[in-house]
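[Q] Does anyone have a clean structure-token version of this?
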Amino acid sequence: KEAHKKCDFVIVSIFVNPSQFLPNEDLDSYPRNFEQDVKLLSDIDFIFFPQNEDIYPNDYKTWITVEKISAEFCGKSRPTHFKGVATIVCKLLNIVNADFLFLGEKDFQQLVVLKQMTKDLNFKTEVIGCPIVREKSGLALSSRNKYLSEIERKNALSLFEALQLAKINFKNGIVDSQKNISQMQRLIEEKGGVVDYIEIIDSQNLEKISKLKERCRVLIAVFIDKTRLIDNIEI
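[A] Here you go.
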């Protein structure tokens, strides 16, 4: 929808990228439903649906690494993830030659990493972040939500509740980052979640900040049983 507002011609890529999954992650079970995707994408011009051998032939040797900002947050628990993300997006943009790239803000670190990559490598493509799409409950839409049982789905609402708590705290003058992180972690753990990380960062450069300020971001990654979910909010 956002692409149609700005562009005459819209292409959507569908590719479950093996290089951004770690060996112990869910590449094989990751949700794939091409027929349903096609129905949802009935109003776009092309679907770009490459196969693994098209993207990574047997003699493939080239990888893209965005230094520093790829190593924090999700990059700590998924060390090769952003190398795979940056490489696949670089390849997709080279193949499609897009004027604009529309990405959801749910993967906020990914958005910043890819903005940096396109700038550093002189792509003509402008990267545009789109607001997080949520269920009525507040749960951010994610392919991995399909893994959740009914009880786990209720427990997963703790991510959004924790992010809302930070927003309320900011309005009430509670701006100390560590105090907010502690309160958010307690709320999530009470609902059975296991925190991978909670960080409060500058939206432009992903640097951690000691006090909440306007337009900063609160990033969160949590395990609900075996399912790892991420979310964030702008203050």
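[Q] Thanks! Anything notable?
[A] The first helix runs from residue 2 to 6.
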